[in-house]
Design goal:
Structural class: alpha/beta
Largest sheet: 7 strands, parallel
Distance between the termini: 50 Å
Radius of gyration: 19 Å
Low-confidence stretches: none
Oligomer: single chain
Strand content: 15-25%
Mean pLDDT: 96
Helix content: 25-40%
Order of helices and strands: EHEEHEHHEHEEHEEEHEEHEHHHH
Number of helices: 12
Length: 343
């Protein structure tokens, strides 16, 4: 068996590649341009071949033949705030990549499944009232908060279109808030805002807690999220590839609603930190209040259910971060001049 992992040097991609190797995959080709990732995340294994470029590069596409059983499309322009700062870069790295990949592989005969990493967070209603679990087959909003969200939804449109028009076996895996070992703060190149470094809430809080720095809570940490451990996401991606219905969509979610303040307090406790909480105002672009994903369809049709509770996942994440502080500090330092100029 062979797999192509687009974005295979990223946080989720690197974890997926390692699991594929553990399961005995004969060959894994990784395509990654290191825009938001680091070479250290690619396992050193003779079965892994790294092709350093964007999947939108015509030369890279020309070298991808009909030789893969599975394709995992995880490449993205990370994330909301970077896309707001540079919508054209988001289009180039978050949507054009998807369209060109689909167009190139649409006639492949060996391919059993192409799994597209979609954004479950994007489709949640804008509410600070009582949240309902977001289901896969609910309405798709047009009123979105960032070019990143728009790109991820349009990517789903293309996945459905290429399945219907060309029979491309696409499955859309809708991620919730993924966290866990392997997420390197500041990985990749500067992308215009401090979100290049402080990109996701969990690794940001863990790092700052280990450094004794304050944990800054936008909107006083009132927002709720569905946090899912990266090991569970990898299991869900493989379930989508092996048992998903072509053309369909599945949430990869924990189904548990946690406030950002509760997350911060848990991280301080798990890490034994002396960090304090700093309560701040809402982000002016973000209207996403309370949300979590429905797990019913994935459980019923894929046999997938997240198995790592938040406290256990945070312990693993804190320990990994402790062991990799030198690498993380080096990445942050690389961007320090840019952040200082914006301060």
């Amino acid at each position: 068996m062979s797999a192509l992992v687009v974005g295979g040097a990223g946080f989720v991609g690197g974890n997926l590649v390692r699991e594929l190797l553990t399961r005995g995959e004969e060959r894994v080709v990784v395509v990654d341009n290191f825009l938001s990732s680091e070479p250290e995340n690619v396992p050193e294994d003779p079965r892994v071949e790294l092709r350093e470029s964007s999947i939108a590069d015509d030369a890279i596409l020309a070298g991808i033949d009909d030789e893969f059983d599975y394709v995992f499309h995880l490449a993205t322009y990370h994330g909301n705030q970077s896309s707001i700062a540079d919508p054209l870069a988001d289009h180039e790295h978050n949507l054009l990549t998807t369209l060109k990949l689909f167009e190139h592989v649409k006639s492949f005969q060996r391919l059993e499944m192409l799994v597209y990493a979609a954004s479950g967070c994007t489709l949640a209603p804008h509410t600070y009232g009582e949240a309902e679990a977001v289901v896969e087959d609910g309405p798709v909003p047009l009123d979105l908060d960032s070019p990143y969200q728009i790109s991820k939804v349009v990517g789903e449109f293309y996945a459905v279109y290429y399945h219907r028009m060309h029979g491309l076996p696409t499955v859309r895996a809708r991620f919730q808030n993924v966290y866990g070992p392997g997420e390197i703060l500041g990985a990749g190149r500067w992308r215009g805002t401090p979100a290049t470094v402080w990109r996701n809430v969990t690794p940001t809080f863990v790092y700052r807690a280990l450094k004794g720095l304050p944990l800054e809570l936008d909107n006083e940490g009132r927002a709720t999220r569905d946090f899912i451990y990266v090991g569970d996401i990898v299991e869900g991606l493989l379930a989508c590839a092996e048992r998903g219905e072509p053309g369909d969509v599945y949430n990869l979610a924990s189904g548990v609603e946690t406030t950002v303040r509760e997350l911060a307090e848990s991280i301080i406790e798990v890490s034994g930190s002396s960090s304090e909480l700093e309560l701040g105002p809402p982000r002016d672009w973000d209207r996403s209040g309370h949300r979590f994903g429905s797990t019913e369809k994935a459980r019923r049709e894929l046999g997938f259910e997240a198995g790592v509770p938040l406290d256990e996942g945070l312990r693993h994440t804190v320990e990994w971060t402790r062991q990799n502080l030198e690498t993380i500090d080096a990445c942050i330092e690389r961007h320090a001049a840019h952040m200082a100029a914006l301060a």
